[in-house]
Amino acid sequence: MKIPTATYRIxxxxxxxxxxxxxxxxxxxxxxxxxxxxxxxxTATSGSTHGYDVxxxxxxxxxxxxxxGFDRMVxxxxxxxxxxxxDIVPNHMAASLENPWWRDVIEQGESSxxxxxxxxxxxxxxxxxxxxxxxxxxxxxxxxxxKRDAKSGKPALAYFESHYPLVAESWQGREEAVLKLTDKAAxxxxxxxxxxxxxxxxxxxxxxxYRRFFEITGLVGVRVExxxxxxxxxxxxxxxxxxxxxxxxxxxxxxxxxDPNAYLTRLRQQAGPECYITVEKIxxxxxxxxxxxxxxxxxxxxxxxxxxxxxxxxxxxxxLRSACDQIVGAPVDxxxxxxxxxxxxxxxxxxxxxTTLLKLAVAIANAEHAPLDESAARAALRELLVAFPVYRTYxxxxxxxxxxxERLQQVVETVKRSATAPDPAALDFLVRILTGDVAAAEKxxxxxxxxxxxxxxxxxxxxxxxxxxxxxxALALNEVGAEPLPRDFSLDRFHAEMExxxxxxxxxxxxxxxxxxxxxxxxxxxxxxxxxxxDLWRESVARWRGINAAHVHALDDGPAPEPAVxxxxxxxxxxxxxxxxxxxxxxxxxALEERFIGFVGKALREAKLRTNWxxxxxxxxxxxxxxxxxxxxxxxxxxxxxTQTLQPFxxxxxxxxxxxxxxxxxxxxxxxxxxxxERLDFSLVDPDNRREPDFDALxxxxxxxxxxxxxxxxxxxxxxxxxxxxxxxxALRQQKPSLFGRGDYLPLPATGKxxxxxxxxxxxxxxxxxxxxAPRLAFDIEDGGPAEAEVALPxxxxxxxxxxxxxxxxxxxxxxxxxxxxxxxxxVILLSL
Length: 833
Hints:
Elements: E1 7-10, H1 18-23, H2 25-31, E2 35-38, E3 42-44, E4 54-60, H3 66-79, E5 83-88, E6 92-94, H4 100-108, E7 126-131, H5 135-140, E8 144-148, E9 155-159, E10 162-165, H6 175-179, H7 184-192, E11 196-200, E12 212-213, E13 216-221, H8 227-242, E14 248-251, H9 260-271, E15 276-279, E16 297-298, H10 301-311, H11 317-328, H12 334-349, H13 351-367, H14 374-387, H15 402-417, H16 424-435, H17 441-470, H18 491-504, E17 509-510, H19 521-528, H20 534-547, E18 553-555, E19 558-560, H21 563-576, H22 586-607, H23 618-630, H24 637-666, E20 670-674, H25 695-701, H26 713-718, H27 720-735, H28 737-742, E21 744-747, E22 750-751, E23 758-765, E24 768-775, H29 781-784, E25 790-792, E26 801-804, E27 810-812, E28 816-817, E29 828-832
Parallel strand pairs: 1-2, 1-20, 2-5, 5-14, 7-11, 14-15, 15-16, 17-20
Antiparallel strand pairs: 3-4, 6-13, 8-9, 9-10, 12-13, 18-19, 21-23, 22-25, 23-24, 24-29, 25-28, 26-27, 26-29
Helix pairs in contact: 10-18, 11-20, 12-14, 12-17, 13-14, 13-17, 14-16, 15-16, 17-22, 19-21, 19-24, 21-22, 22-23, 24-27
């Protein structure tokens, strides 16, 4: 297997085509990339901006160039010596009439060839929750009619532009009469004769007959655990791998599958041993990938979490938390907040999935002739789901493997010791179902798989899409893959995580930005610096709140924005602020406002406190958005103050951004560069982070791979330093792939007055050695001068000659490295000679 030395993620669609990507191949090669890492390229719904709503897994999207354009891109990649990794989506497809499989299911019901391709409960009619109101009200309003389907010419039930095919037996022999139906009772009767029923989108969370992706009713679960479904949905994917056009696969949301291990084993068998395979998987605290999975690792969310240990000031973060508590008005109990968010998901957002599990448990109890009070079972199931600390266990139809069984027992013990412990008998019966200790083996297997497919979405929506928009003490820590509960931050933890990474998944991707991260890597790097100056930040926020107090609206349900949201707004604005934007730049502020307002609106709804996606509070939203817009009024007193106050955070953030890049390029793992983040990435949550970067500007900056211009402030503020660091180190990775891929990881201790301001480690393999020393906690560098520190070297690294990777100079080391440069902000990388 050829392991990538570095990947470059490109988001197709939104103007990005195969031919445009092919034109970027020379740039990627100059940057040092070994593999283009492509977002989903298969045919998706019309106008899809991301491609995860696949409608045809065996066709390449015509809108981005189709098969011919794809082949041209592959040819360009091969000619340059680059490989290709595809992001594939086995868990779900679009529940859209554009999807021929889904359309066939609607038209033929359970007799469709594809009826078992989708995860549908055929014990009842297929629900189609795409109406604006109940069917009865929509019908009464005259929005339901019978028309000929534009594609087939056959009768269909029409709702505005959507035409739902009627099963043949409901119209054949009386086609013209059916087409002329206008009587509401007759239309209702025709609807009742279908194997599906149209319902309101609002009812989806409590009444859905198919498994959906998270809360998205437009994405239906696919049963790739079935061999025929796997074959049908992977035909083109495997053809591309086996032909050599594709070198690797990234599996989207692997935890959504019924049996991830069985899927990955089959995929490995079909794709062959040379295919590089990674999975999108959130690892919880202390959790590791199952050893049986035949893959190279994850896509790297846990790597982002590890970086926070290297860049957060662990000694001062408590002061930032205290400052936030003062602004909000009370200390935050994060454990209680996490529980509340999970309860919201279990009780409301995933009510239908929860109810399905509950009914199944009761049915199993009845089959076992075991008394099970439904209310007790409900409470037990609720507590079990809420207590899960990781995405899921990995039980199969046969039961739970040993590690999953151990995990379940740990969760059960936690539930039993809690203040909300449910009825022990009900809890024990649920555990018996999950472990297979019941006679109704088939139903127990269904329960087990459904339970496992729910714990992941419940966890993700509770934390990433609820809690991380409610509790904003440090936005940099509210990231995909991060732990929501307070913890300690230290270099020792960081080094331990890197040693574990080398031991368990040295070939996994190491990402710092993606299409799913909550903010770009440089915004996160800047916001880490708030932990270095918590008192300054507290004083600044208090001052800014005073300046803008007149723009807080008093609503019946409280002030808008409330203090907690003000704290969020100032941090978010600090993170997204362009390095050189001035308070009198009208055009620049207008462009920023459009992005910032979009984020604020999404943040308010994701928090699900005073407004949400399903039941918006317009008065509240408009008041907060008005406040946010006011923050960006050109030349205001606030903006002048904000811009000036932000400067040391900006400078320290740029240092952090380069340090996290250096770590990503040299620590265990395969560095992944998200499009545009090789320069500066101050993006906000999607869709902002999916905007196409200025590739022309990126290519111009990279015309010549010069050493990083560490002494040039403009090069720092433009992102050129970061881009030069990447090009220089990736060239080295290509020369020494084994050193970076399999070399030992050795933490190096720093000593001296400012030892805490450096992170240092070495990579060694045989006679090859690489020493990395990078600055951290750089907020006060300007006040204290260059950081006075030295890094001690063990005997294996001491008394040798090295080449400075950035300057090209040869140096002879004794038993220590003196990393300080004139400004104390430049990293040092030394390669043994």
